[in-house]
Design a protein that fits this description.
Length: 175
Amino acid sequence: MQPPPDIARPSPRGDEDALYRAHHRELHRAVAHVVRAPRELIDDACQTAWELLLQTQPERHAVFAWLRVVAIHEAYRLSAVDRRDARLERLRPKDRDWHDVMADPRSLDDAIEALEALRALASLPEHRRTDLALKVAGYSYKEIRARTPGRTRTNVNKSLVKGRARIRQMRPRNR
């Protein structure tokens, strides 16, 4: 029999404040060195690592290494979530107006290629279309499985492999 959750959680040791003051800047630099992401995202990842430290109380002889690994994993997770969100500010060209982009002949070629890809995608069965769209949006196999209940990782993988193969078959050979 396990103790209730409030008893199972370790109590703070009292040195967390000193640990934070000693390591927070170094942790931020270490994570920013590994993960290329906005400062706010790195801050969030580091704070999540500190929060987990308070909740789990790992061994203190390797606390910085533990914090670094947890913060890096969280930063990668947050980056994947952030990439899913399309923001118009990111799509806007830096020094040009939208009208210049629309008049660009390369944009027309890109639009035609995108239209061909959409046609290929539309020809797929609905479950493969959904799986590919979720994968392109940055979802993991586990997240795709959660959004499409009753499926295994193998089912999702097979669907993605067959969908990609079908799109490659429909793609024009001259490009």
